[in-house]
Amino acid sequence: MQMKIINVGSRVMNTWLYAVSDGWVMVDTGYPESMARVIHRMKRVGILPEEVKVIFLTHAHDDHAGFLNAWLTRYPHVKVVASEKSLAVLLRGQNPFDGGCSSILAWMFCQVMKLAGKGEHRFPTLEWQFLERFVLAEKQHMSEAEALVSGRILETPGHTADSLSLMVDDLVFCGDAAMNGLPSLRRVTIWIENVEDFAHSWKTLITSGAAVLYPGHGRPFKMADLVRFQSALGKNQVVLLVKEGDEKWNT
Fold first, then answer.
1. Do residues 19 and 3 touch, judged by C-beta distance below 8 A?
2. Mind listing the pLDDT tens digit for each residue in 103-147?
3. Taking a C-beta distance cutoff of 8 angstroms, is the pair 28, 65 a contact?
4. Cα–Cα distances in Å, from 163 out to 61, 88, 108, 200?
C-alpha cells in the first residue's frame, strides 16, 4: 500500500503530513503567521488538527518551527521529535547566523528577505513547560523517537548543526539538507553553516537506500539528483559569501 503524504503548506515552505497507525505525523510547521492556513488546508482534505500526534522537526528555523509553540499550546496531546541541539534555538526564538550563502543567487534572495522584513528571522519562543513533550533524537531516546514517527532518523547537519532527516519506507523528509527550485542551485540549500558537514550529510542521504527526497522547499525529487550534483559540494565549489564580520542574513 502506498504511503499517504499530503503537503498542507506551500511550495515556498512545505509542511508535510503522513499517516501512521493512530493519526498523522507533521514534518515541520511553517512561518509563525501560517498556522491558520495550514489548519484550513488540513480541513479541506479531511484531516482534523487533533489527528496530528507528533511533530518531527528537521531543524529550528523560523520557517520550519515558526508556529510550533502555538500548536503545542492549542493541542496538548502532541509530542515533538527533534534534535537536542534545536532546544537552545527554540528557546531563543531566532535563527542562528553561522555560515553563509551558498551562491550569489542565494545571497540576492537573502537581501529580498531582508527587504520583506524577515531579515532577523525571529519566531515565538518555545515555552519551557513544553520541553516535557519533546522526545530527543539522541542515543538513549532514539528507539522511542523512531517509534513515534514510524521511521528511521538520520543526522544530516550542515545547513544547521541540529538538522535531522527522517526516512520512512523508501523516501526521506530531508528538511533543508537539500532543496528543489530557485534560489537553490543543483539541490544545494541556500544557507550552509558548515560545508564539510553538509557534504557528509549528502553522503548519508545517498547511502540511506531511499529513492525519493521530500524537501522543506520545492517538489519531491529523486535521490539520483544528489548523486549527480555531488561535485557541487566540494569546498571550492560552494562559496560562503557571507564572512565573519559581514552583515548576515539567514534562511
1. yes
2. 888 888 888 988 988 889 999 999 999 999 999 999 999 999 999
3. yes
4. 10, 14, 24, 12
**Residue ranges of the chain with per-residue pLDDT less than 50:** 235-238, 243-251
* The pLDDT of residue 102: 87
CA distances from 119 to 116, 144, 161, 233 (A): 8, 37, 20, 26
SS3 186: coil
| 200/240 Cα distance (integer angstroms) | 17
Backbone angles phi, psi at 135, to 5 degrees: -115, 110
Which residues are 215's β-sheet partners? Answer: 175
DSSP-based helix, strand, coil % in the chain, nearest 5: 35, 20, 45
Calculate the average pLDDT of the chain: 91
Residue for grid cell 564539510: 196
| Cα distances (Å, whole numbers) of residue 249 to 47, 96, 99, 231 | 36, 10, 10, 26
Backbone angles phi, psi at 113, to 5 degrees: -60, -40
Which run of H or of E encompasses 54? strand 52-56
Residue 54 near residue 90, CB atoms below 8 Å: no
Nearest to 128 by CA among 98, 100, 91: 91
